[in-house]
Amino acid sequence: MEELLRKLYEDAQKEILSADSLQQIENLRVKYLGKKGELTQILRGMGSLKPEERPVIGQIANEVREKIEGLLTETKNKIAQLEKEKRIKSEYIDITMPGKPYEYGHKHPMTQVLDEIKKIFLGLGFSIAEGPEIEFTYYNFEALNTPEDHPARDLQDTFYVTSDILLRTQTSPVQVRTMEKNKPPIRVISPGRVYRSDEIDATHSPVFHQMEGLVVDEGITMGDLKGVLNIFAKKFFGEDTQTKFRPHYFPFTEPSAEMDVSCFACGGKGCRVCGYTGWIEILGAGMVHPNVLRMSGIDPEKYSGFAFGLGIDRITMLKYGIEDLRLLFENDLRFIQQF
Amino acid sequence: MSLSWLKEFVDIDEDAKAIAEGLTMSGSKVETITSYGKEISNVVVGKIISLEKHPNADKLLVGIVDVGTEKLQIVTGAQNIKVGDYIPVALHGATLPGGVKIKRGKLRGIESNGMMCSAEELGLDESLLPEYQRNGIFILPPFPLGMDINEALQLKDDVLEFEITPNRPDCLSMVGIAREVAATFKKKFKMPVVEVNESEEQNPAKVTIEATDLCFRYVARVVKNVKIGPSPMWMQMRLLKAGIRPINNVVDVTNYVMLELGQPLHAFDLDKVENKHIIVRRAREGEKLVTLDGKERILDSSMLVIADEKEAIGLAGVMGGENTEITDTTVNILIESANFKGSNIRHTSKKLGLRSEASSRFEKGLDPEITVLACERAAQLMEKYCGGTVLKGLVDEYPKPIEKTVLTVNPHRINRFLGTDLPTSQMIEILESLEFKVVQKGDDLEVTVPHFRRDVTIEADIAEEIARLFGYNNIEDSLMKNAQTTLGALTKEQRLEEKAREVLLACGLNEIVTMSFMGHKDLDKINVPLDSPLRKAVKIINPLGEDQSLMRTTLLPFILNVAYTNYSRKVQDFKVFEISKIFMPKELPLKELPQEIKTIAIGMYGKDVDFYSLKGVIEALFEVMGIKGVEYVRAEDPSYHPGRSAKILLGDETLGIFGEIHPDVLENYDIPVRVYGGEINLDKVIQYANVENRYMPLPKYPAVERDIAVLVDGDIFVKAVEKVILETGGKLIDKVELFDVYKGPNIPEGKKSVAFSIWYRSYGRTLTDEEVNVIHNNIVEALDKKLGAKLR
Ligand SMILES: [Zn+2]
């Protein structure tokens, strides 16, 4: 009987070691250790043994069972490991294939530019004011020191709705409305649509976007105007940006200036973007004209301020190298989805 | 502005680029610099001494040209020359603009030792030249033979073109710019010396200003016995470089003085002026005048004319009349040097669609003090170059001489305003360099403004003069150190608008921007009825065209235009939105400003797009904005598919409309696929938004899920079924979700199967099956009773 058990173990060992699938292992477990398995078969013959032999054989049988079980588990783990490795090997995919697209919308480039500008000025303590696009002539002109026969009114081809209502030609009327409503300190920007009667072409549009800025307080200087706009230029166009202020004329500011920034395309060496001058004209600015302050109910003896205005469309075109303004209004998704 | 001419008024050695840079930074922006004569060498004055047909070519001529040192045989194709003409000759080895080199050679077998040059070949604008100098060789007045052409024509020059702002009409002249150059470069400015030799004969002309509100000053002089002919070449060249066409000596002198001093002049043929009496008056209604350009103008009483005792002879400040024009036979001249009201000139010129060099200057408002000098200067030049005699007596009608502007300014205040620390002496120096007279009075300065600077009226103007000559870029930057701190933040409305935009972007919609104008055609295309309020739009008086004459009352046509653009360009998936304003007037014509309503417009087409994907976007918007209780009812709007569109209601308020675009509308836009669109009133969404979220505790007790599927009539809204479930179940219903709607086999005709999952839950205890069964059965009964729904 001892012999049989030893033989059984040897057979089992042989078979188990040569198994190569989990199914085979399971089959062998049943074959040797199952209720009707070979070990049980052998142990059925225990009854014919002498009583003193029984414990000895019993122990041997247990040892054989344990060994076979151990062997089964060990081999099973080994096979499972191999199978896992095999599966992993078979699961290699082409990681260069495209990902599954998740749809998300693209913000219009002008909104993106405006968002960036807004963030800079919010950080400088500015809030955002809004005003009507269809505006009283008074706010668009008279209150901005541009009376009826003023030559500057000629420069702006204005759309009129009635004799005293028009489509605002600039965002500057919001300056006046803000000053009428609020007491200094005032620090606002005001982006929005403006209108001039130009036919649309690569650089003109009857509808375009401006952003106005206004600061009014005691002791505001022209140095402040320069300081604030310089910070804006550096934050928006890059820390290396240089600026240049040139005298200019606006009816509602005195002194008035235009600000050029060093060309961000060539760094000032001269290129097509800057017309080979190294500089790009970005905005108009100036110290708020005392007449404008006075008309809005602010005492120019006590307060001073500065204002500035810039074209969002133009800056968007410059920033992204867009050469035709019409692209901004055409809304070809192949264009918008580039931003 | 010619640089060589400038040097008559100011000693300056800097080159054109440095001058341009300096002037730009002190306020006179230079737009372009054009160089003349730079590349021209070995071109001399020659005279044609013989001219014959080329033996081998019909279209060529062979000439012998005397160039002083030798006589050269030259072949030319030009036909405008004759023996005796003086011409520019490019010698062997000469260079011309554009890198052209001239070499001797043979033309059709005949030797040619140089080239006769046209004006264009010398870099001049031929279109401004008289006929005989155009279309061929540039025929010159007699110059010494062999003289270098650069010297003869004073060709070598740099011409600067400025952007002059409307406040500085004084800079529209040589002397104006010269003053700026002198002040900018700290040089001395010299006015031209004007001396007139009057004859004994008394001036016979008379001037009456009737319209003293439109004509402030009228200065005149008579010059007798002029000989009309070409003006000197140097004068012609200066006019040419300024873009003015040389005409004859008298007209050229008036233009020359205009360029020099900035005062437009006019010359009348005095013998054609009735009774030699000039009357400045308003035109009569319907009065006719043929202007110098040969066109008959019909005038009205808002316009100012120069007239004699019989009729109008000139349109004041705009253009002279043909009836008193200077012609080859003119002998006696009246020079007009007048000052008119700028806005009136602008008005007249606009009304007649007639602009001239003179009108564009007058309309900016000129200095009346310059008129006498300009008149005398013209008389001086006419005496010299037109062979005329200046008669005794200058006419000067000046009813109300302007007063000098004297300002009291405070240097300390100016420093505080600019953020500078300039010594008073430096301010005085700057002001004096600009010809302001300054007297120190205690802490203040008393500044007398020169007559040509009518733009300077307040202290801020003086501050600007000081700042621009000190240099804007020399002012130290500062960051509002004297100002109070302010809060930089968005308002609640602005934050909500940004939030709305973010939701739409997150839903995969791309942002577009379209124009604000529409026409009735746009409304026709989206089937808007004629009596719709959308037709009562704000109308522009002077639109670019009928199709762009209204301020939009809807964004839908723009969404569809953009859809068409993209569809026609084969864009497959189209999902867009725009946030912009529509304009709704309360009454027309406008008495007050219209309502400007911020509106969200949406448009979609593509393979996965249907009514419900659009509705999903809208629901996402309301969810993020915290708007609960929105109801959807059928929209009755002709722009939309009647069965596939909805109006969005919140209580009594309509928040918007959306759905599939009506097939008729899509046909109008030539779009062959289904398009979904909508418009939502963003102002109202913001008004009802509630984003003040509070945390809800997570449930402690499990939910019991039961499904229910019922058969209902096909036209019963799913929402109605859901409503019955919620009402019947009450508080114990945690959530109801539609999971199936089915029509087809196994379902009777006209019916549909609707299936919901219902989650029952109590927040206070675990529900028992028995409890749930009772409620669930109640729901089944209620559905049957209220909607005739049968359990499947
Ligand atoms: Zn550049």
From TrEMBL, chain A:
<dbReference type="InterPro" id="IPR010978">
    <property type="entry name" value="tRNA-bd_arm"/>
</dbReference>
<dbReference type="GO" id="GO:0006432">
    <property type="term" value="P:phenylalanyl-tRNA aminoacylation"/>
</dbReference>
<dbReference type="GO" id="GO:0000049">
    <property type="term" value="F:tRNA binding"/>
</dbReference>
<comment type="similarity">
    <text>Belongs to the class-II aminoacyl-tRNA synthetase family. Phe-tRNA synthetase alpha subunit type 1 subfamily.</text>
</comment>
<dbReference type="InterPro" id="IPR045864">
    <property type="entry name" value="aa-tRNA-synth_II/BPL/LPL"/>
</dbReference>
<keyword id="KW-0030">Aminoacyl-tRNA synthetase</keyword>
<dbReference type="GO" id="GO:0004826">
    <property type="term" value="F:phenylalanine-tRNA ligase activity"/>
</dbReference>
<dbReference type="GO" id="GO:0005737">
    <property type="term" value="C:cytoplasm"/>
</dbReference>
<dbReference type="GO" id="GO:0000287">
    <property type="term" value="F:magnesium ion binding"/>
</dbReference>
<dbReference type="InterPro" id="IPR002319">
    <property type="entry name" value="Phenylalanyl-tRNA_Synthase"/>
</dbReference>
<dbReference type="InterPro" id="IPR004529">
    <property type="entry name" value="Phe-tRNA-synth_IIc_asu"/>
</dbReference>
<dbReference type="GO" id="GO:0005524">
    <property type="term" value="F:ATP binding"/>
</dbReference>
<keyword id="KW-0460">Magnesium</keyword>
<dbReference type="Pfam" id="PF02912">
    <property type="entry name" value="Phe_tRNA-synt_N"/>
</dbReference>
<keyword id="KW-0436">Ligase</keyword>
<keyword id="KW-0067">ATP-binding</keyword>
<dbReference type="GO" id="GO:0016740">
    <property type="term" value="F:transferase activity"/>
</dbReference>
<feature type="binding site">
    <location>
        <position position="254"/>
    </location>
    <ligand>
        <name>Mg(2+)</name>
    </ligand>
</feature>
<comment type="subunit">
    <text>Tetramer of two alpha and two beta subunits.</text>
</comment>
<dbReference type="Pfam" id="PF01409">
    <property type="entry name" value="tRNA-synt_2d"/>
</dbReference>
<dbReference type="GO" id="GO:0140096">
    <property type="term" value="F:catalytic activity, acting on a protein"/>
</dbReference>
<protein>
    <recommendedName>
        <fullName>Phenylalanine--tRNA ligase alpha subunit</fullName>
        <ecNumber>6.1.1.20</ecNumber>
    </recommendedName>
</protein>
<feature type="domain" description="Aminoacyl-transfer RNA synthetases class-II family profile">
    <location>
        <begin position="111"/>
        <end position="330"/>
    </location>
</feature>
<dbReference type="InterPro" id="IPR006195">
    <property type="entry name" value="aa-tRNA-synth_II"/>
</dbReference>
<dbReference type="InterPro" id="IPR022911">
    <property type="entry name" value="Phe_tRNA_ligase_alpha1_bac"/>
</dbReference>
<keyword id="KW-0963">Cytoplasm</keyword>
<keyword id="KW-0648">Protein biosynthesis</keyword>
<keyword id="KW-0479">Metal-binding</keyword>
<dbReference type="InterPro" id="IPR004188">
    <property type="entry name" value="Phe-tRNA_ligase_II_N"/>
</dbReference>
<keyword id="KW-0547">Nucleotide-binding</keyword>
